[in-house]
């Protein structure tokens, strides 16, 4: 995020690989955050509360990383398409959560 572009290894595997990496990172990050929230609350938190908190935190990270690149990095540039790819990953994870998560009774 904050490293100069010339210090990073080349990622020219195919066109758009960096967007796929953004999407994948934010998908995994959001899934792990959802899992942590569910385990921490022992499944008792409402789906809406979990959804909103996760969306806000992931959004702050998405915009924060691009803000760091825009204002504090000399060799890298912020890109709106990176934020779009971040949101694709975030939305995939949240959509999966809405479809697949069911509250379990009997948490100890």
Polypeptide structure, described:
By secondary structure, this protein is mainly alpha-helical. The protein is 66% helix and 0% strand. It has helices spanning 17-40, 47-72, 80-100.
Number of strands: 0
Secondary-structure-derived class: mainly alpha
Quaternary organisation: single chain
Question: Uncertain segments of ≥5 residues (pLDDT<50)?
Answer: none
Give the overall average pLDDT.
Answer: 84
Bin the strand percentage: under 5%
What's the main sheet like? none
So how many helices?
A: 3
Which descriptor suits the 3D outline? elongated
Radius of gyration: 16 Å
Fraction of residues in H or I helices: 55-70%
The run of helices and strands is HHH
Termini separation (Å)?
Answer: 41 Å
Features:
108 residues; mainly alpha; 3 helices
Topology:
Elements: H1 17-40, H2 47-72, H3 80-100
In short:
By secondary structure, the chain is an all-alpha fold.
């Amino acid at each position: 995020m904050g490293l100069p572009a010339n210090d990073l290894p080349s990622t020219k595997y195919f066109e758009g690989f960096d967007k796929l990496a953004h999407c994948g990172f934010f998908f995994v990050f959001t899934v792990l955050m959802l899992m942590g929230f569910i385990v921490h609350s022992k499944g008792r938190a409402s789906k809406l509360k979990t959804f909103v908190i996760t969306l806000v935190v992931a959004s702050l990270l998405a915009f924060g990383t691009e803000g760091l690149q825009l204002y504090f990095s000399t060799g890298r540039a912020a890109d709106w398409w990176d934020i779009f790819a971040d949101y694709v990953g975030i939305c995939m994870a949240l959509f999966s959560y809405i479809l697949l998560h069911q509250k379990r009774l009997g948490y100890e």
